[in-house]
Structure formats: structure tokens, C-alpha cells
Design brief:
Blueprint lengths: L8 H5 L21 E5 L2 E2 L5 E5 L2 E5 L7 E9 L3 E11 L26 H16 L9 E2 L14 E9 L2 E7 L6 E3 L8 H17 L13 E9 L4 E8 L4 H14 L3 E8 L11 E7 L3 E5 L2 E5 L9 H15 L6 E5 L5 H7 L4 E6 L2 H13 L5 E5 L2 H8 L8 E4 L8 H9 L4 E6 L2 H13 L2 E9 L9 E8 L3
Parallel strand pairs: 4-6, 7-22, 12-13, 17-18, 17-20, 18-19, 20-21
Antiparallel strand pairs: 1-5, 2-3, 3-4, 5-6, 8-9, 8-11, 9-10, 11-12, 13-14, 15-16, 21-23, 22-23
Protein name: 23S rRNA m(5)U-1939 methyltransferase
Family: Belongs to the class I-like SAM-binding methyltransferase superfamily. RNA M5U methyltransferase family.
GO molecular function, one term: rRNA (uridine-C5-)-methyltransferase activity
Length: 482
């Protein structure tokens, strides 16, 4: 099993900007950065190669375990060093023959792209096992092999891209590791092809119409981010321009130009975000043209998605999770189920297809609005969706839901508060299904549920995010005394 050391993403990807150079004396040449040869000992939990140098961890993005590589150290921190990968002197058997992305060394979206896909699945399996083994009650739990994706490239159906400008050239892409420099990504291999096509047209329209790009230093300009959601099954897309202020006139012209060149775009929105922080979406969204939402399809369910609603980035794998949850729940007509953090209602509606009564709880009101519309659109009449605080609403439900039902929880990466888990256990469900996108918080919460009388029977990992270190997992729990 690979050894993992928990390193925060900010630490792992932090490459500090170069400090101002001391003026050189006339005639003195600047020496090139010194390269050193090292052996990568392991990968950390973000999929970054780690070696030891001068008594510190040396992090090398793009390097794989066991490889001998040449590295240029770009940042020396108090506790760790950050290196830039040069030549691979001795390759790992896990390394791909051809790296399909020329931006892989600069952006932070796909740290495992240099690794062949089967090795990625082993890495993610071990990552979950490592997290579980930190807790005695979870050691030896049945962990199934990871369900790999049929399409490990071109799978992302939504993307949030940052806008930038350098030397008069518009850039659309992602931030360079550890900086606010924008890596201009022409053709991301992880994105659905329609996303790449839209981004290219938007860039051309911004340049043609000379629309001002927001500058995070001066806090001046209009366009900040570009958010794109795609429905691969229906071949449609929704585009949201995130701006620092209201400006309908310029965006209306650009939206019309985009629509004329990419007719698959059925909705164009403006989201206003005047804040100076790193949050992408603001609180206000205005429709510029087309429909207010995007219709998508996952399995047999159609879903209406608003600009600010969260939805999975991989439709094929999301459909497999929906089906697995439905099978594990094994609901019959008249049964009752609770779906906590239900989002736009995908899992809840799949559960209700067997005739059970399902109550979905979600804190985001716009997502609840979408969930209710989705239930009507799919002619599902046994789903109820409620907006509010999870712990409070679950406590209230205990008065009307009899013991012996099913509880499903699908929290954000931070997992569940103990109060929420206590409330769920208080419902006394016969089956508790936990869908997680973070092995560390999954293990922590399964350990808490163990102390509350629930035993984890099995875990099914699902690779929702190929080429990245992230992994989804679905756990099935039952009463320990059952």
C-alpha cells in the first residue's frame, strides 16, 4: 500500500512568486537554476510526487512513485520544498506513454494525468483504505474494487474557468499553481468537447468586442469567470458570465454572438459577484437570453439545473451511483426514505421510482426549487423537498417517519457535523447509505456512526474524476445489533 501523508492543497501546489532580484553588477551573468537528481519515494494524497532533500519533503507535481527525476527547486519553505519536474531519468511502469495535456505541469486540475488509468484506480483504492485504517472500527471493512469510468477523458460536463488578460491577450483557463496567473487552456482533455468549443468562441467574442477583463489587483474590469454546464445526452449547454458589476448591454451583444456561433447554447446568464474574495458565484443571477435553466438527463431521469445549483461533473458515473443507492435501499411501496443534502433531487427521485415516500432536505433554496420542478417534470409524486438546516429538519422528521426506513446522506467534502449524524441515527433506519467525495471525512463520519450503533457493511468506490486524485465512495451501513 502506498504511503500517504496528508498535505493541504494550498501547501501542495504553492509555488511562490520569485522575489525581486538584487541588481546585478555590470558584466555579471545570472546563473541558471541548479537541477538535482532525486528518487520519488511516494505520492501524497493529492497525487503529487514526494522525495526527501535536506531533511525536508520535496514535492514534485507530475512525478510518480519510484521514478528517478531531475528537479529544479522553485520554492523553499520552512517545512517543505516545491520542485519543478525536469527530465524523467527512470520511468515508473505506471507512467503513460503520451501525456495528452500540454498544460499538465502548470494548472492544478489533473495531477494524475501522467499515470495510466489502471494505476490511478489502484491509487484511489489505497487512498480510501488508508483513510479507513486510521480508525479501529473500520479496519478490514469490505472495500470493493473501484468502478472505473468508461470514458476517462472528455467526461466533465461543467467547468468554471477564470478570465485573464496578459499583454493584450485574453486568457480563459485555470490559475497557475500558487499564483493568480491564468493558464490559457485551449483544449482541456477532461472537458466535454462542447465546453472547449464554447470557451474558444467566448474568447474570440471578448477580443472582438473589447470587453474589459477583471483585474484582481486593481479591482477594475467586468468579466471575472466563465461557467459552462453541458447536457451531453441532449446536446445543449448553459453559459454563465460572472461579472464584477452589472453591465447588460455588452454581455447581451456577446451572448448573441455566442448563440449565433454555438446554437447548442440554450441559456446565457449573468452572475454578479462584486466581492474581492475567491468565491466564484455571487448571490444574484440574471438571465440574458434563452431558458432560465438547463435540462440534463442522467439515466432515466431528466433534471432541471439552475446556474448556481451543484451537480456532478460526470453523468455516466452519477447514473451508476443512483442505481447503486437504489439497489442498496431496496425500497418497496409504502416505505419511507430521507435524502439529506439532496441537491436537485437526482437520488431522491430514483428512490421514489419504487413507490416509496422520499423526503429530500437541502440548504440551497434554488436547488430545492429545481428539485420540486424535477419531480413534476418526471411525474414523480411521492417526493417532498424541504429547504433548511439539516440537523433541525431531521429532528423534526423523527416525529413523522417510523423507524425501519432508509436514510441517504450525500454531504459536501467537509462531511457531516456530529449533530447531523446523531439525528440520522435517531431515525433508526434499517439501512443508512453514505455517498462521499472525500475519503478522510467519510472515514471520520463512519467512525462516529459506529459509536452511534451503525456498522459499515461495504464500500463501493466510484471514479467520478479520472486524471485527478479525487474519488467518490458509497458506503452501506446497518444497525450493529441487527
Amino acid at each position: 500500500m502506498p504511503e500517504f501523508k496528508r498535505t493541504s492543497k494550498d501547501e501542495a501546489f504553492k509555488i511562490m512568486a520569485k522575489e525581486p532580484q538584487t541588481p546585478r553588477k555590470p558584466g555579471k551573468r545570472r546563473t541558471a537554476p541548479r537541477s538535482l537528481d532525486i528518487v520519488i519515494e511516494r505520492l501524497n494524497d493529492e497525487g503529487i510526487g514526494v522525495a526527501r532533500h535536506e531533511g525536508k519533503d520535496l514535492l514534485v507535481p507530475g512525478a510518480l512513485k519510484g521514478e528517478a527525476v531531475s528537479v529544479v527547486i522553485e520554492h523553499k519553505g520552512q517545512h517543505q520544498l516545491i520542485g519543478r519536474l525536469g527530465k524523467v531519468l527512470r520511468k515508473s511502469p505506471s507512467r503513460t506513454v503520451v501525456n495528452p495535456c500540454k498544460h499538465a505541469g502548470a494548472c492544478q486540475g489533473c495531477s494524475l494525468i501522467a499515470m495510466n488509468y489502471q494505476s490511478q484506480l489502484y491509487f484511489k483504492q489505497d487512498k480510501i483504505r488508508y483513510a479507513l485504517d486510521a480508525y479501529d472500527p473500520l479496519k478490514g471493512i469490505r472495500l470493493h474494487p473501484v468502478w472505473g469510468a468508461a470514458h476517462p477523458f472528455g467526461y466533465r460536463t461543467n467547468a468554471k474557468l477564470v478570465m485573464g488578460k496578459e499583454r493584450g491577450k485574453v486568457k480563459i483557463g485555470l490559475y497557475r499553481r500558487g499564483s493568480h496567473d491564468v493558464v490559457d487552456i485551449e483544449d482541456c482533455p477532461l472537458h466535454h468537447p462542447l465546453i472547449n468549443r464554447i470557451a474558444k468562441v467566448v474568447k474570440d467574442e471578448v477580443e472582438r468586442q473589447e470587453i474589459y477583463i477583471y483585474n484582481s489587483v486593481t479591482r477594475r474590469g467586468l468579466l471575472r469567470y466563465l461557467a459552462i454546464k453541458v447536457s451531453p445526452g441532449l446536446g445543449k449547454a448553459m453559459v454563465t458570465f460572472v461579472t464584477a458589476e452589472r453591465n447588460f448591454r455588452e454581455l447581451t451583444h456577446m451572448a448573441k454572438g455566442l448563440k449565433s456561433k454555438v446554437p447548442e447554447v440554450v441559456s446565457v446568464q449573468q452572475n454578479i459577484n462584486p466581492s474581492s474574495g475567491n468565491v466564484i458565484l455571487g448571490k444574484e443571477t440574471v438571465r440574458i437570453l434563452g431558458t432560465p435553466d438547463l435540462i440534463d438527463q442522467v439515466g432515466d431521469i431528466q433534471l432541471r439545473i439552475a446556474p448556481s445549483s451543484f451537480f456532478q461533473v460526470n453523468n455516466d458515473q452519477a447514473a451508476r451511483i443512483y442505481q447503486l443507492v437504489r439497489e442498496w435501499a431496496a425500497l418497496a411501496p409504502g416505505d419511507c426514505a430521507v435524502d439529506l443534502y439532496c441537491g436537485i433531487g437526482g437520488i431522491a427521485m430514483n428512490l421514489a421510482r419504487d413507490g416509496a415516500r422520499v423526503i429530500g432536505i437541502e440548504v440551497v433554496e434554488e436547488a430545492v426549487r429545481n428539485a420540486r420542478e424535477n419531480a413534476r417534470m418526471n411525474n414523480i409524486r411521492t417526493c417532498t423537498f424541504v429547504a433548511g438546516d439539516a440537523a433541525e429538519l431531521v429532528h423534526d422528521l423523527a416525529l413523522e417517519i417510523p423507524p425501519g426506513g432508509v436514510a441517504v446522506v450525500n454531504p459536501p467534502r467537509s462531511g457531516c457535523d456530529r449533530e447531523v449524524l446523531e439525528a440520522l441515527a435517531g431515525l433508526e433506519p434499517r439501512t443508512l447509505i453514505y455517498v462521499s467525495c472525500n475519503p478522510l471525512t467519510l472515514a471520520r463520519d463512519l467512525d462516529i456512526l459506529s459509536s452511534l450503533g451503525y456498522r459499515t457493511e461495504e464500500i463501493q468506490p466510484v471514479d467520478m474524476f479520472p486524471q485527478t486524485p479525487h474519488i467518490e465512495a458509497v458506503a452501506r451501513l446497518v444497525p450493529a445489533q441487527g
